[in-house]
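Bump. Still looking for DUF2917 domain-containing protein structure tokens.
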Amino acid sequence: MTQDVRLILKSELMRLDAHERWSMVCETGEMWITVNGQARDIILKAQESAIVGPGNVLVEGHGSLRLRAQPGWLYRQAARLVGALWGLIRRQRERRAQHVHISITRKA
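Sorry for the wait, here they are.
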């Protein structure tokens, strides 16, 4: 279950420790977002959104910001990777099956 958290900022600076990825939606106003380890900052205006984290996140601005955790993001990425690998293995098996001819003869 995901829950939204709504922050109301009045020209304030807030630090968030994001242990997973978060969806951030600027509902009103304007937000300046800095994520530790990212080369570029994110500027959100009303009705714009971004996915941030994991890591330390600084948010500065005024207005209303809605946060929603993206649970299972890592699981979904791993599932995509496993699916792609399984498809590769299946195609290799199919290719091998096309090249192997087995003939069985009965001795009289």
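The longest helix spans residues 73-99.

Edit: fixed formatting.
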